[in-house]
Amino acid sequence: MERLLVLVRHGQSDWNLKNLFTGWKDPDLTEQGVAEARAAGQRLKALGLSFDVAFTSALTRAQHTCRLILEELGQQNLTTIRDQALNERDYGELSGLNKDDARKRWGEEQVHIWRRSYDVPPPGGESLKDTAARVLPYYIGEILPRVMRGEKVLVAAHGNSLRALVMVLDRLTPETIPTLELATGEPLVYRLRADTTVESKDVLKG
């Protein structure tokens, strides 16, 4: 039985381009982001992959990415489940701010701590630990059982919600996970063993 799980961070969004903290704000993809999503679909198609179900967040940029990938695979009508449990980390008061402006306001060191620590949230927002606390139960309850039944599962989500999943799959620690960067539109192809651990992982770079 093939236990296939593919994770894809959404393509570049308008606010990624403008260097803004995005979080739960809802900008769409840029032209580059659309191209990244389509390229992700093409790379998956080149491997002969198809899916039984897709999961995405409640935010436009992830949903758009998911839709474009499925178009490239000829699976436009695939069942797609949307849930805010897969949303990006909530950046609270930082949301919508330019990252350089935030550094001027709070200082380089403080902004770095908010962005790269595991358990220190920005004002009014979530830490990566908080994000994992909502992502992982959803993964265990809704996504993983389908993978273990042999369904081929696509998850199109966000840098931090996916980092929470990668932390578990790759057995990373709270000390190492903050340094992990996930490229936009770059599929991570996991195949799992019967005990839910990772048998293989392939990163489909552009």
Features:
single chain; 206 residues; alpha/beta; Rossmann fold; six-stranded mixed β-sheet; 7 helices; 6 strands; isomerase; His_Pase_superF_clade-1
Please tell me about this protein's structure:
Pathway: Carbohydrate degradation; glycolysis; pyruvate from D-glyceraldehyde 3-phosphate: step 3/5. It is an enzyme of class 5 (isomerase). This is 2,3-bisphosphoglycerate-dependent phosphoglycerate mutase. The protein has about 210 residues and is an alpha/beta fold. The protein has one domain (about 5-205): 3-Layer(aba) Sandwich (Rossmann fold). It has helices at about 15, 30-45, 60-70, 100-105, 110-115, 130-150, 160-170; strands at about 5-10, 55, 80, 155, 190, 200-205. Strands 3-2-4-1-5-6 form a 6-stranded mixed sheet. Helix 2 packs across helix 3 and helix 6 (about 130-150) packs across helix 7. It is globular, with a radius of gyration of 16 Å.
Instruction: Give the N-terminus to C-terminus distance in angstroms.
Output: 29 Å
The level 1 CATH classification is Alpha Beta
Helix/sheet category: alpha/beta
CATH superfamily: Phosphoglycerate mutase-like
Percent in helix: 25-40%
Architecture in CATH? 3-Layer(aba) Sandwich
Q: What is the domain total for the residues?
A: 1
Number of helices: 7
Main beta-sheet annotation: 6 strands, mixed
What can be said about this structure in brief?
The chain is α/β, with parallel strands linked by helices and 206 residues long. The chain has helices at residues 14-17, 31-46, 60-72, 99-106, 108-116, 128-148, 159-169; strands at 4-9, 53-56, 80-82, 153-157, 188-192, 198-203. The chain has one domain: Rossmann fold (3-Layer(aba) Sandwich), CATH 3.40.50.
